[in-house]
């Protein structure tokens, strides 16, 4: 049984089918916890640090070749990942470990007794304290010399948590811009193209700051496709986007940015400000990035949990995107196909997907009419009102335990969970969380300490004859 706990599980898991769904989700989150990911990906033998990425890439570093080793990073899983990495390095460096700083949204206990600072930031909107602490990360990187090793930990959430706005953009303008971007329905790479070009650290600029030190990045991916330029807005990797791309995103989604942002982007597009470093820039001569955990990490573990319960498990996709409401309907149809036609596998079966859906707020929606419940809750509610058969359960969570800006992780539903008219109304108002909560179907874990995107389980117990 997993160490991840769903609050009030005994009440929520009202049938064995619900129980299987929750087991799969818990096992997936557990596998993606930093301690487990680092145990699989990082080893130190003698004086050699070895790192293995989930894509099969490997790297070796002779720790004795460096005058100092420094640790920097940001993200929801940054504190735990840095702590697990420090455990691997414990006793190997002596006074050559020059400490470091990471910024996370759940710092309590992560850095206790550690030779580096774990500093609080905020997500999804940057804050003044987050900016102050992100500057500490930049200072650590800037202090590295050509004979030093900088280990960077970049995990989901780093885009907000590692925020150092470009001059003259202030924190209030950055918050307003970020809020508009998150509500407009843009993809994560579109959002990050804007954030990178309003930042002094994103889009390879942390690597530029650390150069010519050797930089090794351990990334925990929370983006579809594991593009290292998108994970955490790619602070240590080349940036393929431009100022023109940032401006195009704002225009595409009808966002009128604060005046400081508009002037800054226009100046960059006119060549009056330096571009973020692209491939071939000397800043990356001594850098490598390893993706050590991703959606597949969670999906494979969830599949193993299903098999342990006697179900055939299929990972249908790890790249589900688009509107959460649409994805919920599609997953309900997938369950129907499994039950009736035995595709893609005959029941009893668990169909698993990952990815990251979005919720687009209608233009002109008043703030006081926007309720609670993020993409995973909306996904679950949408699926629930489409289900017609008994013996099917659909569950969805954000692996970080925080679904959008809510205090829940997601939801679990069957055909009888929600009254259809009320659910449709709640979906239209983006206020599904209270309805799920009333039905004992809102899933809560609290912050999990990891973040590898959304995880969904569709459990189908019987085939319709």
TrEMBL record:
Residue ranges of the TM segments: none
Entry keyword Lyase: no
Molecular function in Gene Ontology: kinase activity
SUPFAM superfamilies on file: GckA/TtuD-like
Gene3D superfamilies: Glycerate kinase, MOFRL-like N-terminal domain, MOFRL domain
Superkingdom, natural source: Archaea
Residue ranges constituting the MOFRL domain according to the UniProt record: 350-454
Keyword terms of this UniProt record: Kinase, Transferase
Domain MOFRL-associated: 21-266
A Pfam family this chain is assigned to: DUF4147
Region of interest called Disordered, as start-end residue ranges on this chain: 101-121
InterPro entries, per the entry: GK-like_C_sf (IPR037035), GK_N_sf (IPR038614), MOFRL (IPR007835), MOFRL_assoc_dom (IPR025286), MOFRL_protein (IPR039760)
Keyword field contains Transferase: yes
Protein name: Glycerate kinase
Organism: Halorubrum glutamatedens
